[in-house]
Design goal:
heterotrimer; A mainly alpha; B alpha/beta; C mainly alpha; A: mainly alpha; MetI-like fold; 2 domains; about 70% helix; globular; B: alpha/beta; D-Maltodextrin-Binding Protein, domain 2; five-stranded mixed sheet; 20 helices; 12 strands
């Protein structure tokens, strides 16, 4: 092993100092390593969160810094939870979340399984499939409005080519019935590769020997798939769902560029609604309460989910 | 009173005179939206830089983020912008929250008279409270919603004959909104040069202010009023009057029958795309696009014509756009910023502004003989500027706008409920906003 | 895996898999190719009705992306003939170039903030992940969940406190502020990814190094880090993809000096309407660095994302 700077430093260090460094207890090292992360997260995530919680009990408006701020107790929370429009945005979010995860898991897993067959050129095509994920969601959302235009865009012509329908006969982001699916399609197009990559990592982590043993027991391929492949990949898949779920619960940029929440409020996801309250209406106190409710919801769902995930991992 | 005014005026004059003698060079930043006219302003301002020795910087924010970004800047007392060409509806906030510098003394000291500007732009871009001589901006860019039409299609003899037979009128610029809808219906789905074309491209955008800027052109002309002219903030029976309901129903009928498929979220750039690509016979849009249409290789020149928003049963109005230029009160270069405004207000500069594709509001430019013929759209621009009306300019304008976007888009595009229900709900939303703001 | 393995997929399956995957890849590529093609169209061609698949290529979009233009009178145009090929492109449309656009600046901001925050996330993430993997830390599981939970807050929800905080600290609209912010958002992912990876490195290696007289720290830098290179590389890819493309914070918290390209690209305005060729050109150029970075680190990508789910 060639000598590195570290070695020379170690040799040049007087024994007492060296002993002191060496003497750093494991506990000290652990804290020195963890502290910057915890500190940064406290400063940039937790401090604003606490601030947000505090604001949520006031009628503060960030665009009137000179106006008096009053404590309003739980009124903001009451107003939000009794507002039918907000329940509608929650529903829209749930629809978006469920179907994007459903399609991404289904297609992502299938693709990973197929790629794992290692046909010639599979590495090249994997790279191609991963490309959409590297685009900026805002740019993607913006460009898909263009692709979805019935007269000048690509999407309707392609669909019409394969189905024989009239390309101008339907408008993906203009119709109440289609708009929720328009955003699901774009998100699925963009993020299926993410789920695929994780599934692929899972598939590749399954030791060959397990299949060989199954083969000796004359288990059918079908049986092998359900008793070996699926259970072994499940923890990976669940992690992919966790990360995609968290991201899509906060979905903002892609959809705001794509539909602006329309038609009406059909695709107004909670983050879009929240942004309107916070940065257009400037009802900071109210928006803060809204944010806290959202955070508690995700936090609760995620902690249940992580428990389930740990159970699956232990099996 | 008068004496103190004069004193203040002469002080400012002296101060600016001193400043000029000092010949100090300030670094000025002008904030505006990122669009065509802004690029022209950069070019125009080179003259100011050469004359004054000040350096001009520009911060242009794209329209969809313009309000969020700039209001955030102003609300936080930011020093980024010395000069702000803010949207007309911000004037109330700018004045009441102290973001803008009051201009009265400066105007007086430099012999800039608001009487020299198109009255509607003074009311729309400079005054707060409206109708009082308190000025917070100099009208900078005059803009208004108007219509563009395909003159070449209108001129086809076979279409003219067919139209005349069907509607008993000549196929020409519509005099009323009802006629406009007939024309749109006539073109909708028609085959022209081998392509299916559509009637009218209109504003329907959800995210910022699009559908409001569109629907008001119908609402005003059918009798919608923002409030009781006798009693401020009294909206019941004005916002949701039977005329207003009819106007909203008209806009929905126009959207349902006569717009290109997929035009559910369209604002300035989407309608212009539709028009330029030959999809639509008529296009609703702000006048700022007219120079671009005129120069377009596909639809420019003689192929397009322009007309102001047609009348309705209750009169003829058009939605005001445009902006005034203000000095930001947090700026440390206020003198130099005022110097810029003084330079900008000169008739020669305003004339060049027009030549380069800007839209001046100075009477001496727009009323000059030959102006109406200087460009094919000049007459339509003048006629439109004479009939403008603007949205609320209250400090709470953003909330008022959001409520309207929501209610109107739900009814017109998503087809929820009735027009009466939508406007009733709007009165409710607006009342709540004014109550929260302490105005009711 | 050897081709002759009993459990390996049959030839026929390989063919079928290949066809399906290539089919999917081609479909998924279509919107991307359309974006790239639009970058080489003229403005009228980009919005042609019906859309044009075959068109005369033009660099108009790229010229518009990097410059600002303004319309000029015919007299002025005649008096000032174009000097260069790009001036000619603009000139032919009755315009003149008035200067360079902000795209270059925005792009550089993206490079500084994107790579800066990726570097910082990976460094801090590796340290924390190592500590979580090797040491007994009280409430470890809760801390790990806490770290994950910091990713759950929607950016729009915390933007106002962060905005106010940054302004007080003089961090608003600065590169440093945005780097710290993106680092904080990415740390959760980095710690989770890297912990899984470090968990897989056998402890025996470090113990052997300690017996050889290395300090703990030396053992970390000389034994663990090289072993974790794969995980670090794939973590870097994911952090970069996020930081490079982030939109909500960028649009709400930055303006003149530190704004990145994502809020800029979708809103490039041409004559009247949106300048689709320039938008497409911007999207294409903006994609290049991430793709290059990913292709360079491609080998590590798959092995890295195990999230600690693997126990050997």
């Amino acid at each position: 092993m060639p000598e590195t700077a570290m070695d020379s430093v170690a040799r040049a260090t007087p024994p007492r100092v060296a002993r002191r460094i060496r003497g750093l207890s494991d506990r000290m090292i652990a804290w020195i390593f963890v502290a910057p992360t915890i500190f940064l997260l406290l400063a940039i995530n937790i401090f604003p969160l606490i601030w947000t919680i505090r604001l949520s009990f006031t009628n503060f408006r960030a665009n009137r810094p000179n106006a008096e701020t009053a404590w309003v107790g739980l009124r903001n929370y009451e107003r939000i939870l009794s507002d039918p429009d907000i329940w509608q945005t929650m529903q829209a979010t749930a629809h978006f979340l469920f179907w994007t995860l459903f399609f991404q898991v289904l297609i992502g897993f299938a693709l990973a399984w197929l790629i794992n067959a290692k046909f010639r050129g599979s590495n090249f095509w994997t790279t191609i499939i991963v490309l959409p994920m590297m685009l900026s969601p805002a740019v993607v959302g913006n460009f898909w409005t263009f692709l979805y235009q019935p007269q000048i865009g690509l999407f309707n012509y392609v669909v019409a080519f394969f189905s024989g329908a009239d390309p101008t006969g339907f408008t993906m982001i203009g119709e109440v019935a289609l708009a929720p699916w328009a955003i699901v399609i774009v998100d699925t197009w963009m993020w299926t590769p993410f789920v695929m990559l994780i599934c692929l990592a899972g598939l590749r982590s399954i030791p060959e020997s397990i299949y060989e043993a199954a083969e000796c027991d004359r288990a059918s391929k079908w049986r092998q798939f359900w008793t070996i492949t699926v259970p072994m990949v499940l923890p990976f898949l669940m992690l992919a769902v966790l990360f995609r779920g968290i991201e899509n619960f906060k979905m903002f940029d892609l959809v705001v560029q794509l539909t602006g929440g329309g038609p009406g409020s059909t695709t107004e996801l909670t983050s879009i609604n929240l942004k309107r309250e916070a940065f257009e209406k400037w009802r900071t106190g109210y928006a803060s309460a809204y944010a806290v409710i959202l955070f508690v919801t995700v936090f609760g769902l995620a902690s249940i989910y992580v428990k389930a995930l740990n159970k699956v991992k232990e099996r | 009173m008068k004496k103190t005014h004069l004193l203040a005026a002469s002080l400012i004059a002296a101060a600016s005179g001193l400043a000029a003698e000092d010949a100090y060079a300030a670094n000025l930043t002008l904030c505006w939206a990122a669009w065509d006219p802004a690029n022209a302003l950069v070019e125009l301002s080179k003259d100011f830089e050469a004359q004054s020795g000040h350096k001009m910087n520009f911060e242009f924010v794209p329209w969809p983020n313009f309000a969020d970004r700039m209001l955030n800047e102003l609300n936080s007392g930011g020093k980024l912008c010395d000069l702000m060409i803010g949207d007309s509806q911000w004037i109330g906030l700018g004045a009441e929250a102290g973001h803008y510098v009051k201009m009265n003394d400066f105007f007086e000291a430099n012999a800039i008279s608001m009487d020299d500007f198109i009255p509607a732009t003074v009311t729309g871009y400079a005054e707060w409270p409206k109708g009082t001589p308190n000025y917070w901006a100099l009208p900078a860019y005059a803009d208004v919603v108007g219509w563009t039409y395909r003159k070449d299609w209108f001129a086809r003899p076979e279409l003219q004959a067919e139209y005349k037979e069907k509607y008993g009128r000549d196929l020409d610029v519509p005099a009323t909104l009802a006629e406009l809808k007939d024309i749109a219906e006539f073109f909708q789905g028609r085959e022209i040069d081998g392509k299916t074309v559509y009637g009218a491209a209109i504003y329907t955008e959800r995210g910022s202010e699009g559908i409001t800027m569109g629907v008001t052109n119908a609402l005003y002309n059918y009798g919608f009023l923002y409030e009781n002219p006798e009693k401020p903030y009294d909206m019941e029976g004005f916002v949701n009057s039977s005329g207003a309901v009819e106007g909203l129903e008209f806009y929905k009928a126009l959207y349902d029958c006569c717009t290109p498929p997929g035009s559910s979220d369209w604002y300035m750039s989407e309608t212009i795309d539709a028009f330029k690509s030959g999809q639509a016979a008529l296009q609703m849009n702000f006048a700022f696009i007219w120079p671009g249409v005129n120069a377009d290789p596909n639809v420019g020149g003689d192929r397009s014509g322009y007309f102001p928003n047609p009348a309705g049963p209750a009169g003829q109005f058009a939605q005001l756009g445009g902006q005034g230029i203000s000095v930001v009160s947090y700026s440390s270069n206020q003198d130099a910023a005022l110097e810029y405004i003084k330079w900008f207000a000169q008739p020669e500069v305003q004339q060049r502004w027009w030549d380069m594709g800007g839209a001046p509001a100075l009477k001496s430019v727009v009323e000059a003989p030959g102006f109406a013929d200087s460009q094919p759209y000049a007459q339509a621009f003048l006629d439109s500027m004479a009939i403008v009306k603007d949205f609320w300019a209250e400090p709470t304008y953003a909330e008022l706008l959001l409520a309207m976007q929501n209610r109107v888009h739900r009814y017109v595009i998503a087809g929820e409920g009735t027009a009466q229900e939508a406007l009733d709900a709007l009165v409710g939303d607006w009342t709540e906003v004014f109550e929260d703001d302490g105005k009711l | 895996m050897s081709g002759a393995s009993v459990t390996g997929p049959s030839r026929r399956l390989k063919w079928a898999a290949g066809i399906l995957v290539v089919g999917y890849a081609l479909i998924t590529l279509m919107p991307l190719l359309w974006i790239m093609a639009t970058g080489f169209k003229t403005s009228p061609d980009s919005i042609a009705y019906p859309p044009k698949v075959i068109f005369a290529p033009s660099l108009e979009g790229y010229v518009n992306l990097f410059t600002t233009q303004t319309r000029q009178t015919a007299d002025y145009l005649a008096a000032n003939p174009p000097q260069t090929w790009y001036e000619k492109i603009v000139h032919d449309r009755g315009m003149v170039i008035t200067g360079t656009s902000r795209f270059g600046e925005r792009f550089m901001n993206s490079v500084i903030i994107g790579f800066g925050s990726t570097f910082l996330s990976v460094v801090l993430g590796t340290l924390a992940a190592y500590a979580f993997s090797r040491y007994r830390i009280p409430l470890k599981d809760d801390l790990m969940f806490f770290i994950l939970s910091t990713r759950m807050m929607p950016p729009v929800a915390v933007a106002i406190p962060i905005f106010l905080m940054f302004r007080n600290l003089g961090l608003s609209d600065t590169h440093a502020g945005m780097i710290l912010l993106y680092t904080a958002v990415n740390l959760s992912l980095a710690v989770w990814l890297l912990k899984g990876f470090i968990d897989e490195i056998p402890r025996e290696y470090e113990e052997a190094a300690l017996i050889d007289g290395y300090t703990r720290f030396q053992a970390f830098t000389k034994v663990v880090l090289p072993q974790a290179a794969t995980g670090i590389a794939s973590t870097a890819i994911f952090c970069l993809i996020f930081a490079w493309n982030e939109y909500a914070f960028a649009v709400l918290l930055t303006s003149g000096t530190a704004q990145t390209a994502p809020p800029f690209i979708p809103t490039i305005i041409g004559v009247g309407g949106r300048d689709w060729p320039a938008v497409a050109a911007g999207a294409t150029i903006f994609l290049v660095p991430v793709v290059v970075f990913t292709v360079l680190l491609r080998k590590h990508l798959l092995r890295g994302i195990t999230f600690g789910a693997v126990r050997k």
